[in-house]
Amino acid sequence: MNTEINVKVNYVGFTRRTVAEVLDYIIFFFPLFILYIAVSGNHEVDNFHDEIKQLTSPYTIFTSMLYTVLEILMITRLGGTPGQLLCGMYVKDANTFKSVTLMQATIRCISEAALSFVFLFLIDYVSQWFAILPILVFIFAIFDQRKQFLHDKIAKTVVIDYKPS
C-alpha cells in the first residue's frame, strides 16, 4: 500500500521564530525577575545586574535547567512553547510532520541550550571573533530549504505553520 502525502507545508522563517523566542523569554523570565526582586528585598533595578553577576553560576544554571525542562514538556505536550503557539507555529517531526517524541524534544532543547552556552562561552572567554558563529548559524537557517536551525537538524524537527484537522 503506497500512500503519498501531498501537503503544502509552510516552514516558519527566522523573523517569526525570533518573535516567538522573545515572547517566551518575556513570559518565562519576567515573572522570575519580579520574584527575585520580591525575595531579595532589592527594589532598585540598577543593582539587579550586579547581583545576578555575583550569582551567575547558580542563577543561570537553575533558570536554564528549569526553562529547558519546561520547554521540553511544552513542545512534547502542546507542540510548541507559548511564544510559538501565540505566533501560530508548531514543532513537528521533520519526516512525518507528526508531533515530536519526548526524545526529539529533549535532544532539540538540550542541543539548543548547549549551543547557546558554547557560543556565549567562546565570545566571553576566548575571543569576540567567535560572535560570527551564531550569525553563520542564522544565515544557514535563513537559506535552508526547510528553514531549520542547527538544533532542528540535530533533533530532526521542523517548525511549521500547522492547522490541525
UniProtKB/TrEMBL annotation:
Subcellular location: Cell membrane
Pfam family for this entry, one: RDD
UniProt topology in membrane: Multi-pass membrane protein
The keyword Membrane is annotated on this UniProt entry: yes
InterPro entries cross-referenced by the UniProt entry: Pra-immunoreactive, RDD
UniProt feature coiled coil, ranges: none
Residue ranges of every copy of the RDD domain listed in the record: 11-156
Keywords on record: Cell membrane, Membrane, Transmembrane, Transmembrane helix
One GO cellular component term noted in the UniProt record for this chain: plasma membrane
Chain ranges passing through the membrane: 22-39, 59-79, 100-120, 126-143
Protein name: RDD family protein
Species this chain originates from: Wolbachia pipientis
High-level lineage: Bacteria, Pseudomonadati, Pseudomonadota, Alphaproteobacteria, Rickettsiales
